[in-house]
């Protein structure tokens, strides 16, 4: 079951629609805005679920961090698109991301205990690896507005920190000694 959750979360960002849209003419700033908002919301929703379901303090700490940080990114993105007068434009990629996120959350809801914790944390590792890849290869290169591009570049270190934190929790869940993670 955890492999299904892992695969669903990864597919949420490794969606062929991203590649097709990129080939078609690149993503527009309104399309990028929609993808950013949806990608953050998917992780906020998964984090909220983990906060409710886990009894593991490290998993709970990771989930709370995801909710707080991704909520902050969405707030900043919303303020920026408002300032720029841009309306996020849904695409096949953002719709697929939302749909896959809901499917992954549904699968997570069916799990409990250590199986839930492992699936959630494995999903966070895969999701952040995918987010960083999409950010680097598609969103930043496609952004036309300098402020939007700067916001995307500026959030990258936080996503790297999220990935590192998730990997540390993943290692601890697998029985490895956790290393101290920076917050």
Structure keywords:
183 residues, mainly alpha, Ferritin, 7 helices
SSE order and pairing:
Blueprint: H1 2-13, H2 16-25, H3 29-53, H4 57-84, H5 92-109, H6 113-142, H7 146-173
Helix pairs in contact: 1-5, 1-6, 3-4, 3-5, 3-6, 4-7, 6-7
Poorly predicted tracts of residues? 1-24, 179-183
Text of the CATH class? Mainly Alpha
Q: Biggest sheet: strands, sense, closure?
A: none
- Inertia-based shape: elongated
Tally of individual domains: 1
| CATH overall fold name | Ferritin
Question: What can you see in these coordinates?
Answer:
- This protein is an all-alpha fold.
- It has one domain (2-173): Ferritin (Up-down Bundle), CATH 1.20.1260.
- The protein is 83% helix and 0% strand.
- Helix 3 (29-53) runs antiparallel to helix 4 (57-84) and helix 4 packs antiparallel against helix 7 (146-173).
- The longest helix is centred in the last third of the chain and has 30 residues, at 113-142.
């Amino acid at each position: 079951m955890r492999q299904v959750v892992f695969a669903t979360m990864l597919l949420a960002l490794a969606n062929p629609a991203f590649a097709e849209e990129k080939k078609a003419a690149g993503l527009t700033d309104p399309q990028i805005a929609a993808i950013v908002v949806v990608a953050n919301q998917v992780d906020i929703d998964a984090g909220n679920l983990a906060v409710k379901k886990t009894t593991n303090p490290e998993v709970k700490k990771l989930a709370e961090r995801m909710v707080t940080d991704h909520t902050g990114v969405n707030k900043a993105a919303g303020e920026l698109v408002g300032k720029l007068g841009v309306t996020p434009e849904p695409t096949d990629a953002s719709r697929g991301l939302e749909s896959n996120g809901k499917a992954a959350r549904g699968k997570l809801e069916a799990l409990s205990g250590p199986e839930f914790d492992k699936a959630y944390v494995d999903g966070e590792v895969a999701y952040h690896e995918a987010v960083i890849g999409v950010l680097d290869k598609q969103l930043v290169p496609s952004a036309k507005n300098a402020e939007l591009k700067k916001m995307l570049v500026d959030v990258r270190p936080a996503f790297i920190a999220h990935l590192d934190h998730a990997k540390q929790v993943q290692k601890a869940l697998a029985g490895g000694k956790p290393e101290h993670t920076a917050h």
